[in-house]
Input
Amino acid sequence: MIAPTPALFLDRDGVINVDVGYLHKPEDCIFVEGIFDLVKRANALGYKVIVVTNQAGIARGYYTETQFLDFSAWMKNEFSRNYAHIDEIYFCPHHPVHGLDKYHTQCDCRKPAPGMFLEAQAAFNIDMQASVMVGDNISDLEAAIAAGVGLSNLFISSSIDRTITEIEEAQAKKLQIKTISSLKQVSLSNT
Ligand SMILES: [Mg+2]
Ligand SMILES: [Zn+2]
Output
């Protein structure tokens, strides 16, 4: 039996890349400052690095799953070129209202549901309590907390209005989270 391993869970849009809306082309991808260093730090400390991303653009027909997977392969390779490693990318292609055909469903993977986290937990034998989530939406953190992730970081990189709204919502829902304005502020064990 292999001992459980901690994971660094990352939302994609707004955490790994600047959220330009339905990103699916390399030429539109701007990486968030500090993301390669954060992933390198996690790699060095023995964390699995797991991306968990809602991709309603697939549900809406803006791009296909194949286009998403091609883009994901490109993104993982950009991390490799920067000496950082992403272990897996989980995505939800559904939407309960705007999904077309098979994507129109109330699934258990779209955040704030914890499905993607639980799938990763089973696949990688993850110690959820020792794990860390970084997201830029309350729904990211609700999903992580529902899955038992020990530390949830709300990454606020955009406008002050958004900051206030998100923090107020987190307080109203009494979420146990840490608010950060730089990816350098993500605490991993021994750092
Ligand atoms: Mg996001
Ligand atoms: Zn889903």
Summary: Strands lie at 7-10, 48-54, 88-92, 132-135, 151-155, 178-180.
